[in-house]
Design goal:
Blueprint: E1 2-7, H1 11-25, E2 28-33, E3 41-48, H2 52-62, E4 68-78, E5 83-89, H3 93-108, E6 122-131, H4 137-143, E7 147-150, E8 153-162, E9 165-175
Antiparallel strand pairs: 1-3, 1-8, 2-6, 4-5, 4-7, 5-6, 8-9
Helix pairs in contact: 2-3
Length: about 180
C-alpha cells in the first residue's frame, strides 16, 4: 500500500477550494484539477509499505490538541510537465510541532521517512497546469478567498490509482485531544 498521514479540511471547505480550482482550470490549456474528495494537507508521505499498524501507533503518539489552520493566497511549484498550484497555509507553530512529533514517532516505529525536503504545508488544487497565453492568473489569485479550519484528526490515507484516477482512501483516524 502507498500510505501517507494527512490533515483533511471539512467537506464544505474542500468543495470551496475545488470551485476556486475550477476558475484556475478555465485559464489553462491543460492540466488536472484535484477533486474535493482528495484535497488534504500531507504531514508525512510513507510510500509503499505494509506497516499500517506502526503508522497508526505513531499517529496516536503524535496527536495533540486541535488547532486552527489558516489558508493564504495560492501559489505554485513549477515542474517539467507544468505547474502544481496550491493554497498555502499560514505559518503555524502547532502544525510544525505536530509534524515534528509525527516524524519522531514514525522513526521510533522504525519507519523510514524521507525528511530531507523542507516541509511546505499546502493544499494542492491542480497538477501539470499550463496557462493559456495571456491568462490573468494574478486576477484569479487575488479573487481566491482565504479561509480557516479547525483540525480534528490525523488520517492515515492510502493512495490508490484505479480506472477513475487517483483516489485517497482513509484507512484510519486518530482523534486530536480536546
Amino acid at each position: 500500500m502507498r500510505l501517507f498521514v494527512a490533515l483533511v479540511p471539512p467537506e464544505e471547505f474542500r468543495r470551496d477550494l475545488e470551485r476556486q480550482g475550477r476558475g484556475l482550470r478555465a485559464l489553462c490549456q491543460r492540466g488536472r484539477m484535484v477533486p474535493w474528495e482528495n484535497i488534504h494537507l500531507t504531514l508525512a508521505f510513507l510510500g509503499e509499505t505494509d506497516r499500517r499498524a506502526k503508522a497508526e501507533r505513531a499517529m496516536e503518539r503524535a496527536a495533540g490538541a486541535p488547532f486552527s489552520l489558516h489558508i493564504t493566497r495560492p501559489g505554485r511549484f513549477s515542474g517539467k510537465k507544468g505547474d502544481l498550484w496550491w493554497m498555502g497555509v499560514e505559518e503555524c507553530p502547532p502544525l510544525l510541532a505536530l509534524r515534528r512529533r509525527l516524524v519522531r514517532s514514525l522513526g521510533e516505529e522504525g519507519m523510514w521517512l524521507d525528511d530531507t525536503k523542507s516541509f511546505r504545508p499546502h493544499l494542492t488544487l491542480g497538477r501539470d497546469l499550463r496557462p493559456l497565453p495571456g491568462a490573468d492568473l494574478t486576477a484569479w489569485a487575488a479573487a481566491c478567498t482565504p479561509g480557516a479550519w479547525q483540525t480534528k484528526e490525523l488520517i492515515l490515507m492510502e493512495s490508490r490509482r484505479d480506472e477513475s484516477g487517483l483516489r485517497y482512501i482513509p484507512l484510519s483516524r486518530c482523534s486530536m485531544e480536546k
